[in-house]
Design goal:
Shape of chain B: globular
Strand content of chain B: 15-25%
Strand order of the largest sheet of chain B: 2-1-5-3-4
Number of domains of chain A: 1
Radius of gyration of chain B: 12 Å
Helix content of chain B: 10-25%
Largest interface: A-B, 29 and 16 residues
Number of strands of chain A: 8
Distance between the termini of chain A: 22 Å
Oligomer: heterodimer
Radius of gyration of chain A: 16 Å
Largest sheet of chain A: 4 strands, mixed
Structural class of chain A: alpha+beta
CATH architecture of chain A: Alpha-Beta Complex
CATH topology of chain A: Aldehyde Oxidoreductase, domain 3
CATH class of chain A: Alpha Beta
Number of strands of chain B: 5
Order of helices and strands of chain A: EHEEHEEEHEEH
Structural class of chain B: alpha+beta
Strand content of chain A: 25-35%
């Protein structure tokens, strides 16, 4: 399931949903990303490309399902103006064994970082700056 | 052709969307970038460093050599920073 939304989400409810799929489920791994409030960050605004975002996330999910035997995948990503501590992104993966769940969850986050069309605008006292892409994120994405 | 701009490209150009018809000999993503950069000082500034720009045709990532047709949706944006 893929959701791109401005409103907040409930990670516990999503983990519970993927835990209740049936007896084949032996592992549920999740990653929750938050707005880090360092260097006097006031707010962060996430812009995205409606349509392409959903399309890219679907193709990343499809690739994860090709590589690992997964029972379900949930990706929720927010856009709009967020404050330090706010939830940004949730990835939950259900599988029979922990190996697939851990690996697929990390893969999904690494690919999402470099392939899903989101951009971050950081607000600090008196000025706004677009966040530049990190070469470290590119390397983490390329190792898969 | 529908052309979309995101993040700092949108701020520099001053709009998020334009409906334009490039000249007949301007066919690929790279040629359209070069042509757009002549349209205004804002466009010139936005496209000044082509290495910092990514493109998508019909919502899939596209290279500079990809041809773009009149009915296609073309988008320009910086490298993505989600997650």
């Amino acid at each position: 399931m893929i959701r791109v939304q401005s409103e907040d989400f409930d990670p516990g409810a999503e983990i519970a949903r993927l835990s209740g799929l049936g007896p084949a489920t032996g592992a549920v791994a999740s990653f929750l990303g938050l707005v880090r409030g360092d260097d006097d960050l006031v707010a962060m605004t996430l812009e995205h490309y409606p349509g392409m975002t959903e399309r890219q996330l679907a193709s990343i999910e499809e690739e994860a399902r090709r590589r690992w035997k997964l029972l379900d995948v949930s990706i929720i990503h927010r856009f709009g103006r967020l404050l330090p501590g706010d939830r940004i992104v949730l990835v939950v993966v259900a599988s029979s064994h922990r190996g697939e769940a851990f690996a697929a969850c990390e893969f999904l986050m690494d690919w999402l970082k470099t392939k899903a069309p989101f951009w971050k605008l950081e607000e600090r006292s008196g000025h706004e700056d677009w966040v530049a892409a990190k070469s470290d994120d590119e390397q983490r994405s390329d190792r898969w | 052709m529908k052309i979309l701009y995101f993040a700092w490209l949108r701020s520099k150009i001053g709009t998020g969307e334009e409906d334009l018809t490039p000249p007949a000999d301007v066919v690929t993503v790279g040629q359209i970038m070069a042509w757009l950069s002549t349209r205004s000082p804002g466009h010139a500034e936005a496209f000044a460093k082509p290495a910092l720009i990514r493109a998508a045709v019909n919502q899939d990532f596209a290279g500079l050599d990809q041809p773009v047709g009149a009915d296609d949706e073309l988008a320009f944006f910086p490298p993505v920073t989600g997650g």
